[in-house]
Amino acid sequence: MKIKLLTILLTLTLAITATGCKVVDLPEQSDTDTSQEESIPDEVEEPLPDREEIPEEPLSTLADHVVYSSDYIYYYNLYRSNVAAQYGAYMDMTTFWDQEIEGQTMQQRLVHDTLNMVKEAAVFYNVAIQDGMKLSQEELEDIHGEIKEVLETQFDNNEQEFLNAFALTPTQLSGMLERSKLVSQYVSKALEDIEISDEEIAQFYQENKDSLDTVTVRHILIDCTEEMTEEEQAAAKTKAEDILAQVQGGADIGKLAAEHSTDPGSKDNNGEYTFPKGQMMPEFEEWAFAAKPGDQGMVKTSYGYHIMEKMNHSDLEDAKEQIVQTLRQEKFPEQYSNVYDQVDSPDWSLNQELLDKIIASAAV
């Protein structure tokens, strides 16, 4: 699917790491050791060098469509940071970016994919302008006010530190957010305008029922595993049968779950789970989907005995909104094929020198 702009990240996230001393604990010495104070030097993180401001210039153009340097800088750095946060603890990031997939390194794919995404944004921005859309004065003031507040409260009005954090100046970030917000509003409106018939919804539901349907059950788990002795297993079964009788006699299964269940994931939530197919133990899932709302019973899994009560089984109406959104996203590229023809055009210009400068700067 080509839509990459349905969620525009407009929340400013700051990660400011303070430099300072790292405390190192010494191992305790035994009474027979000769106590001797050792001086442990503090480890101080070296501050990163200041970023160089990259001027706001067209990076790539096609007729009236313009990708500005700030658009690319923001998303390129954002994606790099997200990847580093996800994988940095497990592997060297230089090795990660040098990995090849289908003849391209991960770094090359990131450069290419980010460029395609901001081209898409540039075309939709122009379409929105041509359709007469614009941000309200209040929306503009909100963006400017948020950036001003961040600059004042987080960086004490130091624009160099702001640049170090965002790789953009306050003015550049403001312009990028204005364009992104307008694109987001246009795409959201365009999606809402795509009509989906009841027949399409019903057909999609029938074809994807297994993944769309969910059930809600309450249960109480009484541990009974193969590691337990026969006596312990017999006692667990007796306890489970006694609790089931209480539930069938009208006792509140939620209160009994809090008192007796050994399932930490649900005992403090009235023993409740809501789930689609494929997430639970087979015996548990089979009972949950076969039973009717209000049914009570007991099943045995490798974890033990589950005293069950079915609360709800979703239907087409419950899934309707999700189906509509899915079908709209599927239809969107087709209905806006003229836009994507422009995005995919080979006639885009590219300021390679500026792009190389942006990529080199991202390593700072």
Number of strands: 9
Secondary-structure element string: EEHHEEHHHHHHEHHEHEEHHEH
> How far apart, in Å, are the first and last alpha carbons?
33 Å
- Give the oligomer, counting copies of the same chain as homo and different chains as hetero: single chain
Report the β-strand fraction as a percent range: 5-15%
The radius of gyration over CA amounts to 29 Å
Average pLDDT reading: 86
Which geometry do the CA atoms define? Answer: elongated
| Spatial order of strands in the largest sheet | 6-5-8-7
Number of helices: 14
Overall tally of domains: 2
Helicity level: 40-55%
Low-confidence stretches: 3-40
Question: Structural class, from helix and strand content?
Answer: alpha+beta
The main pleated sheet reads as: 4 strands, antiparallel
Word description of this protein:
This protein is of the alpha+beta class. The protein folds into two domains: 58-196 and 322-362; 214-313, Roll (Chitinase A, domain 3). It contains 14 helices and nine strands. It has helices at residues 69-87, 93-98, 106-130, 137-155, 159-166, 170-192, 198-207, 209-212, 230-248, 253-260, 282-290, 316-335, 337-343, 352-362; strands at residues 58-62, 65-68, 100-101, 104-105, 215-223, 272-275, 296-301, 304-313, 349-350. The strands form three sheets. Strands 6-5-8-7 form a four-stranded antiparallel β-sheet, with helices on both faces. A three-stranded antiparallel β-sheet has the order 2-1-9.
In short:
This protein has 364 residues and is of the alpha+beta class.
